[in-house]
Every structure is written in structure tokens, then in C-alpha cells.
Amino acid sequence: MTRVRRVASIACCLVLILGLTGPGGQLSGDLDPRGGSLSARQPTKAAQPGRGLSNQAASSVPTMGEDSARMTAVRDLLSDRMAAVRTGRKSGWMATVDIPGSAFGRRQSVAFDNLIKLRLGAFSYGAPRLAPAVGGARARHAGLHAWVVTVPGTYSLAGFDRAPRSFEATYTLVQRPGGWRIVDDSDGATTPQMWDLPGLRVLRGLSVIVIGNAPEARMRDYSAIADSAVRRLTGVWGTDWSSRVVIVTPSTAREYAALVSRAAGSTLDQVAAVTQGVISPGRRAQGDQVIVNPNAFTALQGDGRRVVITHELTHVAVRSSTTRPVPIWLSEGMADYVGYSGLDLPREQVASALLSLVRQGKSGEVLPAEVDFDPSRFTIALSYSKAWLAVSRLVDLYGQARVVAFYRAIAGDPRVGQAQTNPEVAAGQAFSQSFGVTQAQFVDDFRRYLEALARPAG
Is there a contact between 356 and 450 (Cβ–Cβ < 8 Å)? Predict the structure, then answer.
């Protein structure tokens, strides 16, 4: 019999999940970046600042005029790179690199090829700013006239993102006879992006684009699951969401950790996927991505993979069609409810670990709070079980349509201007309006339901 477990992890914005695994399998989570832009222009030859230009451990300090000249130089380089992406001219991109045959140069060659594969709707750099200096052996290797800038940027995937996503890179520049060139991107906090993945491929399904370097057969499996999940999700949540899904599938745990900006380790090992995207207070998400953890996800059995993908797509749908947060038990419980819909798995089986604690009187608060989903403090699989069973119980009592309407009442309609409200307060108010009972009355009923579910059969 398939063993059922539910484990997950937190990353910035809490959008975590539940799933089905085989022995040793694990599960899922969510994030949220932002950025700026610089308008593109035609390639120009990089400006050549005068002598003594260095923010490193050099013997002289640049003058104000030299600072201005070298910032002009980097803006020229960035504009050349943007123009290269816009026109598909790899030679223009590689002309900004100091040594094309170096390790950095080879990575830049891969990055450009991948950017072209993505079919970008936009790609731009923002205004550069000086980064902290490097010193010691690194400064001696790069040269006295090397200096470092941090550059924000934005991009969008054509047909999928409704607003640009942000990224940031730190470039080390050196002055050569032909002008300034980029020698590396490792002297600061460069954020790895999907286009940095070696062997990147792009598969396009009916409603989904799968981007990554996982084995092609696995990527096609993700695409098929996602297309099916979109149809199932729309049947529960409705059609007022983007219905366009981006799934990113790195081939290694290290690549996955880099893409979600987390150190690899045991916490991430518990997460099968995360939903990550641009979101602003009071606005709908404009371009979420589901990023799959290859180790954890491949440990799942077929039903478990379906649950994970459907759970994450529920977050995508909700975030792209509402404007306010809801209590975490409701967001995670709804995602699990949709994820498990149609599988006809016994609740006693799925929530067996939680029900064991209920029998011992050790299950804690009935409706889990945000802190209960912190994997460094708790066994969060129990919190997912509670959240899922709470939403399932609401559906038992009041029907799916009323529960979805309850969620929407708290989360806000993007077409109607509404003030931001504390999610817990909003939920308490919506209970009586939606169901004719108070939240406290539902909690009492739910506690009794858990106790009944935990009783041994017979």
C-alpha cells in the first residue's frame, strides 16, 4: 500500500504543500522577488575611463569625474547586452565579456543561448550601483583597475508573465585596451536564474511551459500533470485566473537551492516544490513560477506528484485572482483540498500521524497558525493535515461552492477596492456571514470531528 506522508518547508512567503510519497519521499513551499529597469539602446563601444579607476585595494581613489565615466562605461555594457538579447546577436553579448574562453565566459555563453530559448517578452537592466570592494588575492588577480557593480534587472516570459520579474547580478569589470569588460559575477550576491542552468530545454504544453534541465521524459510528465491539474483546479476555483503556468525543473538539489535562494540542506530536502513570484500588497500576483525540487519530487509516487503540482497550481490560481492574504490554515488547506480532490483516499490514511496524536491528546491547537508551519520548530506535516481536514470538514458541512466563496470573501476581489484587513479578523467576520456560525463554533465542531476520525474502526 502506498505510504502517505506530508512534509514541507517554509521559504519567505508561506505557500507550502502536502503530498503523497513512497518510502523516504518528501514534499513542498513559496517565495517573492522584485526589481527595476533601464531602457535598452543600440550597442555602443564602452567608454574608457582614465587611470586610477578602482574601488578595490588600489593605491589611488577615483575622482568624481572618473566615477561618472566608469558608470557611463557600465551602462554602455549593459545596453549592449540588452540589445544583444533583443536582436539575438550572441556576438554582441560575448563582446561584453573579458575572456570568452574562461569559466565565466563559458557560463555567459550558456546564459545567452538559454535566454533566447525562453522567448522573453522583456529583458532589461536597471541603474548600476557600486558594490563593496574586493581585496587581497582576488584584487591582485582581477587587477588594480578592476571594480565591482551591482545591477538590478527585470525580465518576463512572453505569453505567461503579466508583469516583469526581477533579478540581480554583481559584475566585476576590468579595463582593457578596447574598453571595459566584465570579468566575473562571483564577487557579490549574483542571484542564479533559470537561464544559468546548463542544458536548458523548454517544453510547451496546453497551459504550461516547463523550463529546466531535468531529463526530458520527466519534464514531459510534469507538463501532462500540470495540464490536467489546470482543468481540475478551474473546476473548483473558477476561471478568473491566468490559467498559464510556468514550471521550472532543475536537475540537481544544488541548482534547486540556488534558484530559491536557500542553502542546500535537510530543510529543503523536505520540500518537493515552491511557488515563487512577484506580488505587491493589494495586487494580484503577475507571474508565479513553480520550482520543483528534483530529489524530493522524484521520490513521490504518481498520486503524490499529482497532489504536489495541483497544490502549487492552486496557490498560483489564488494569488493571480485575489489581493489579500488569508489565514495560513485556509490557504494551505484549500491547496491540499484541491490537490487531493478526485483521489478518494481515506482521510484516516492521509492524516494518520495527526490522528495518532489526537488519540493521545497531543494534537495542539485545532487550526494551525503561521508559526506551526516553521520546520525549524515543529513537525509541520501535522499542520498540513489539520489545514486539509479543516477545509474538507467545511466542504462536508456547507458545500464546495460556499467554502470557495468564503475564501474569496477574505482574500478580496481585485475588481473592488478594499482596505487591507488582518486575515484572522477577516476570517472571523466571514464565518458568520458565509456559514451562519461563528469561527469558535466551527472549531468546536472540528475538534469533535477529529476525535471521531481518530477513533479505531469497530
Answer: no
Measured from the Cβ of residue 144, the count of other Cβ atoms closer than 10 Å reads 18
Distances (CA, A) of 158 to 80, 84, 200: 21, 17, 17
pLDDT tens-digit readout, 300-324: 989 999 999 999 999 999 999 999 9
- Ramachandran area for residue 179 (φ above 0: left; ψ -120 to 50: alpha; else beta): left
Least confident stretch, 37-41, 86-90, 133-137: 37-41
Here the cell at position 89 is: 546577436
Is the same domain home to 183 and 212?
no
Grid look-up 490557504 returns: 331
CB atoms within 10 A of CB 61: 11
Q: Is residue 52 part of a domain?
A: no
Its domain, for residue 128, covers: 64-190
Cα 421 to Cα 273: distance, rounded to the nearest angstrom: 29
Instruction: Please name which of 143, 132, 240 lies closest in space to residue 187, comparing C-alpha atoms.
Output: 132
Count of the separate structural domains present in the chain:
2
Taking only the tens place, the pLDDT of each residue in 348-359 is 999 999 999 999
Spatial neighbors of 126 by CB under 8 A, at least 6 apart, are 35, 36, 37, 38, 151, 152, 153, 154
Q: pTM score, two decimals? A: 0.82
293 and 422 assigned to the same domain: yes
What's the rounded Cα separation, in Å, for the pair 75 and 127? 8
User: Can you tell me the distance from the alpha carbon of 275 to that of 263, in angstroms, rounded to the nearest whole number?
Assistant: 17
Q: 328 and 439 in one domain?
A: yes
| Residue the block writes with cell 579607476 | 53
Please report which helix (H) or strand (E) contains residue 289, including its range: strand 289-292
- DSSP class per residue in 69-101: HHHHHHHHHHHHHHHHHHHT-HHHHHTTBS-TT
**H or E element in which residue 356 lies:** helix 352-360
Which residue spans within 94-212 are E strands per DSSP? Answer: 120-125, 129-130, 147-157, 165-176, 179-184, 201-204, 208-212
Query: What is the Cα–Cα distance from 356 to 112, expressed in whole angstroms?
Result: 53
pLDDT of residue 278: 75
Alpha-carbon distance of 223 to 230, in angstroms, equals 11
DSSP element (H, E) containing 427: helix 423-435
| 206 and 153 assigned to the same domain | no
